[in-house]
Amino acid sequence: MIGKIVKQISNDYTVKVDNKLYICKARGKFRKLGITPLVGDNVEIDEKNNYILDILTRKNQLTRPSISNVDQAVIVTSVKIPDFSSNLLDKLLTIIEFNNIKPIICFTKLDLLDENELNYIINIQKYYRKIGYDVYNNTDEQIKKIFKDKITVFAGQSGAGKSSLLNRLDSNLNLEIGEVSIALGRGKHTTRHTELIEVLGGLIADTPGFSAIDLSEMKNSDIRDNFIEFNQYKTFCEYKDCMHVNEEKCGVKENVLTKNILESRYQNYLKFIKR
User: Fold this and answer.
1) CATH number of the domain at 67-206, out of 3.40.50.300, 3.90.1300.10, 3.40.630.30, 3.20.20.70?
2) pTM of this prediction?
């Protein structure tokens, strides 16, 4: 039988097959091969003896949290308390793109902004939409439609409003406000296992948190290639392997000057590759 691992506690894996749950152990062969089953894995099980027999090919996997086959990551982005951080947003976008996961940006706390601050954030949102990202506010009803048939993880700094957003999406979750229990960021976590919970027709990862928000696993060329709008202009660069820093006749730098590329995006890129 083929099912999906939806929960892991210690060496017990809960596998969902249709609407039935099986608590399974992993066969010893996985340990010998150096492979560990992950929440999100599609697996073949022996339902009579409750063993995982095989793990189907993964399309991606994360280390922290330990989860596979993620479809999308919602980056919950506060604009006030804590203030908007373009550096953190761009860092998360780069890492998520690198892991072949679709990023979705959700801005929170816009009601705390004055008129000038709000206009600034609206322009920021317009830019990220222009380069191809799905961008929502936490009060948008349309955001409820993005979860169906998807595995979703949440990203964002502590206090950005992840728990409030999730409670609004599904009041049955009853997450404590101020406690980060679903996050790809720092914060106090009470969850000690990884689990996929059903929300709005999809699965959302309830995890101890994703602490790998640094770029250490990425080469500078990886960082460059995952600033998605740069790829649009690199054909105008003189050198095929242009890093868009000191090179002459660089299409990216030219489009920063003409404001086709957001200045903060380019400055964050320079910081990231100079780690």
Assistant:
1) 3.40.50.300
2) 0.89
